Amino acid sequence: MEIRKTLIAAAIAMVAAQAGAAPSMMASPVAFSAQEKTRLVSTLNGELGKHGLDADHGYAIASQHPGEHGKAISRLNHTYKGVRIFESETVVVTDEGGNIVSESIGDRRQGLSGKRFSVKPKLGDQDAIAKGTMNIPLAKTGANPSSAELVIYPVMKTVRVAGAEGKAEDQLNAVDVRDVVSGYELAYHVKTRAMDRGNPVFYDTIVSANNGRVLEQWNMVQSVVGTGHSQYNGDVPINTTLTGGMYKMIDGSRGTGGTFGAMAITNANHGTSAGAVYTNTTNVWGDGQNYIAGGSTTNANGQTAAVNALWGLMNTYDMHKNVLGWSSLDGNNTATYIAVHVNTAYDNAYYTDSCKCMFIGDGGTSFKNLGSIDVIGHEMGHGITAATSNLTYRGESGGLNESSSDISGEAVEAYARAGGSGTSLPVPSGNDWVMGKEISKSGNPLRYMYKPSKDGKSPDAWKSTIKRLDVHYSSGPNNRMFYFLAMGSSATSGSDTYSQYLTQQPKAMTGIGIDKAYRIWFRANTTKFTSSTNYADARTKVLAAAQELYGVGSREAKAVQRAYAAINVGADVAE
Q: What does the pLDDT read at residue 20?
């Protein structure tokens, strides 16, 4: 097998290899031995008492990733009598000797200690699946069997903290309220990943294991609804593989294992499954034009969607590896792929955890081909979140999940437009701080990071009702926070970047640049967030990440406090 690169691509690889070091994470995968895993769980089990927990409690390792400077990141589910407690987790960073360096906890287990809580279900898993999918439109084509996991489901309620009891609803700050456990129910977490008339039908459902009642259900389609001749970026370098006299869209220099052994682009050919890897007799691909409806998906016009996808995939991979040392979606360099020409005139792009891959539509009524650089970065961002914090895709955590992908999209766009090389993110000039402008037929972006309310649906700041919004809108305030953190704000009340919540001096907060802002956000998402993290918790953990990277009381830490204050999460501080 022979790997072919254009001269430009080879030069990019050389520059990346020779560039000076910046604060980064370990690039190579880490092997976690059975002994190390056992030691970590044993250490944590030995500390149950300090958390007020009895011997029925325990830990189960969910995932492990390489960390910075030889450290490792472990995510552990909390268990009770061997059953996972939903959204109750611990994130541990350990050093090369296996010693715990930091511990972040999303805790929903205290109410179980000393209780006689039964973990014996009255309902079988197949009955739970039937109950959980009863009201979901399903088709057999392309469907994966639904799964059901027995869990202990904490029933949550929101209460006001001391001192905020008398505040009017519209005067509440995010730190004035907190979520507490009001009870527990033995339940099944039912995952449904099916197709209906070519559209993904992805739902998570919580079904009572006692009586089959649906306790909660949320949509899991993580989408943006909404030399290669690329459609949006001119001629771009793409890495392909030459084998048997044919060029394949398999990039053997990025990722290992997975479905195709490396990063790949496939042709769904208007279907809903991945299809075959793109091939070509020459190593020149695409015509740079939007796909002509009804035409071939394999000729030059049809190849353009694949060029868009591969260039986006390469830049997303390179940005995370070169800047942060994070390899592929899971940090362990496991290869992923993107399928293009999904369905017919499909106005969507989405990530799915069933294959840990992405599907890109050609666009129809509202959009052109959805393979723009920020959309690819967004979808791969979902993969990174799914592999790490796994922010539950509903309520405030779901909004943060979407926001994390928007943030990833902007970081990838900034990196790619500056040449796609180097170990730091450039001063933003190529990214536009909006999502999906290039793909929109009307020219109107899907989302505005600097002022989310410009879309007519997203709020600019946190409010107590935000958890009831669709996650594509509840993401708005955190998007604005990240813009302020990177770029700063304005003191002029009529400006799109003005915040009424910045009351300290200077009224126009100073940004710290996208490079530092993204490092802080990425560290928080991968080493501190848990699946239940909300806006108030995110502020605490993003601040902790900034303090670890740049110091307590640093300019960067103050900027985090100010950026969150600007969206009504926590109090403002002077610079």
A: 33
Which domains are assigned to the chain?
A: 2-24+225-387 (3.10.170.10), 34-112 (3.10.450), 125-220 (3.10.450.40), 395-565 (1.10.390.10)
Query: Residue 517 is which amino acid?
Result: A
Residue 396 host element (H or E): helix 395-417
Q: Are 415 and 319 in contact (CB under 8 A)?
A: yes
State in Å, rounded, how far the first CA of the chain is from the last one: 57
Summarised one tens digit per residue, pLDDT across range 151-189 is 999 999 999 999 999 999 999 999 999 999 999 999 999
Q: Enter the tokens of residue 537.
A: 């918790």
pLDDT by residue (tens digit) across 23-42? 334 434 456 788 889 999 99
Average pLDDT estimate for 396-423: 95
| Amino acid at position 247, single letter | Y
Query: What Cα–Cα distance (Å) separates residue 12 from each residue in 118, 203, 280, 415, 545?
Result: 58, 41, 24, 12, 30
3-state secondary structure of 301: helix
Could you tell me the two tokens for 212? 């089959």
Classify the phi-psi angles of 148: left when phi > 0, otherwise alpha if psi is within -120 to 50, otherwise beta. beta
Phi, psi of 100, deg, nearest 5: -75, 125
* 90 DSSP β-pair partners: 76, 105
Query: Which residues are marked as active site?
Result: 379, 472
For 79-92, b/e burial (b = at least 16 CB within 10 A) is bbeebbbbbbbbbb
Q: What confidence category does residue 1 fall into, taking pLDDT thresholds of 50, 70 and 90?
A: very low
Q: What is the pLDDT of residues 511-533, one digit of tens each?
A: 999 999 999 999 999 999 999 99
Q: Which of 534, 310, 511, 528 is nearest to 401 (CA)?
A: 534
pLDDT in tens, 115-159: 889 999 999 999 999 999 888 866 555 556 789 999 999 999 999
Q: For 302-418, where are the E strands, in sequence order?
A: 337-342, 349-352, 357-361
Let me know: does 465 contact 393? Beta carbons within 8 Å: no
CA distance 80 to 374: 41
Least Cα distance to 451 among 437, 461, 464 occurs for: 461
**Three-state DSSP class for 3?**
strand
* pLDDT tens digits, one per residue of 380-396: 999 999 999 999 999 99
Question: CA-CA distance, 331 to 329, in Å (whole number)?
Answer: 6
Coil/strand/helix, residue 27:
coil
User: Do 263 and 327 touch, CB atoms closer than 8 A?
Assistant: no
User: Between the CA of residue 42 and those of 46, 61, 95, 166, 380, what are the distances in Å?
Assistant: 6, 11, 17, 45, 34
In this structure, are residues 522 and 319 in contact, taking their beta carbons and an 8 Å threshold?
Answer: no
- Residue whose tokens read 């959980």: 132
